[in-house]
Prior knowledge:
It is built from three helices and nine strands; from the N terminus they run E-E-E-E-E-E-E-H-E-E-H-H. With 175 residues, it is of the alpha+beta class.
Amino acid sequence: MLIxxxxxxxQTGKVKRLEAELNMESFHMKSSSYPIVAKKPMIxxxxxxxxxxVEIKADIDIELDIPxxxxxxxxxxxxxxxxxxxxxxSGDISEEEAALDEMDFIEGTDFDATKFAYGEILVNxxxxxxxxxxxxxxxxxxxxxxxHGSCGCDTTELDPRMAKALEVFKSFKEV
Length: 175
Ligand SMILES: [Zn+2]
Ligand SMILES: [Zn+2]
């Protein structure tokens, strides 16, 4: 959703409030994608603070299904983001600012609500989500979720040399 901020620039102190529907069903990243299971429209408030600068206040409230970092079961994770940003719409941003690409959600005087929300969600994503602090994870042999009971695998760590010897032993047995 694009919001033209040009009319706002006519007068310092002018405020524009609106709600923007988040038109994403899931949150995609390079290596993974999380379904969005609940969301509220993003609440936006733009204020002309003078010198072609606009202050952006945004409230984002969504719920994502994120896999548990140990057992991979999905965990409903609510993200409530309140953010305050300042953008310069004069068009002459420094090369430094351009290099940082901090403002990829601004194109001319258009504000891209979806791109903005994406960036805010990305920086606010929890590093690691756990279904519970006592999650037992999955068996690294058979992949069973150990929260549902043990699998009976022998998980004693083998000395690499021992493992090699055991392999040789096994291959003899197969002959
Ligand atoms: Zn878990
Ligand atoms: Zn197992």
